[in-house]
Specification:
Layout lengths: L2 H20 L1 E6 L2 H4 L4 E8 L1 H30 L21 H20 L4 H45 L21 H6 L2 H4 L9
Antiparallel strand pairs: 1-2
Length: 210
């Protein structure tokens, strides 16, 4: 396939992916016709985004499919005229979202789907198998990203716990001094509150002398 044709399918795939993100899957409720006489449409909470990714790969091939998703992720991270094209926003901070791994999975998923679709005989069964394997790869990338974020969270928590433990090693009780307006009352900051011994967290009421 010539380079201009690759770029054409990449642009088409990019537009399909953006349009599929904005278009939500809905279903019409036939029972609404019995009562009010009007047709009610209920959204299912999913979009045609993944379908657009796999359709582009099946029609344009692995290169066009991967290029379309690379452009989609790049435009979502850096913005398009101030507009967000991801399902839940956009910008560089979106890499902290748990679902960002699935967006990254669009790239290898489209590549695998397009590669198999053009290599196998063009039948409905082979196209369905290509799309299924591409979908599996998207989910694998998404789950791997979730595990990566979870591991980073545990590592950050372990490092914070090590610093808190180091603060307890000197045997000092974390109480407010002259620099704290509360006088000698126990500090309620996150680190000091967690670092103080349990006995200091319970305020004892002095008993009256007999």
């Amino acid at each position: 396939m010539a380079l201009p044709l690759y770029l054409t399918w990449a642009v088409v795939g990019l537009l399909l992916t953006i349009g599929g993100t904005l278009l939500e899957v809905a279903i019409a409720s036939p029972t609404s016709l019995w009562g009010s006489g009007s047709l009610q449409v209920h959204g299912l909470g999913v979009t045609f985004q993944v379908g657009a990714v796999l359709l582009t790969a099946c029609l344009g091939g692995r290169t066009a499919g991967a290029l379309a998703q690379i452009a989609y992720v790049a435009l979502g991270l850096f913005g398009v005229m101030g507009q967000s094209i991801f399902g839940q926003g956009g910008g560089l901070d979106y890499v902290q979202q748990p679902t960002f791994g699935y967006l990254l999975g669009f790239i290898p998923g489209a590549w695998l789907c397009g590669s198999l679709a053009f290599r196998l005989r063009p039948t409905v069964e082979n196209l369905a198998a290509s799309c299924g394997l591409g979908l599996v790869l998207i989910h694998v990338c998404g789950l791997a990203y979730l595990l990566l974020l979870g591991g980073m969270g545990l590592l950050t928590g372990a490092l914070n716990g090590g610093r808190v433990g180091a603060g307890r090693s000197d045997g000092a009780i974390f109480r407010c001094g002259a620099a704290c307006p509360g006088g000698d009352r126990l500090c309620h900051g996150p680190t000091r509150f967690l670092s103080a011994p349990r006995s200091t967290l319970l305020r004892r009421t002095p008993r009256p002398k007999a």
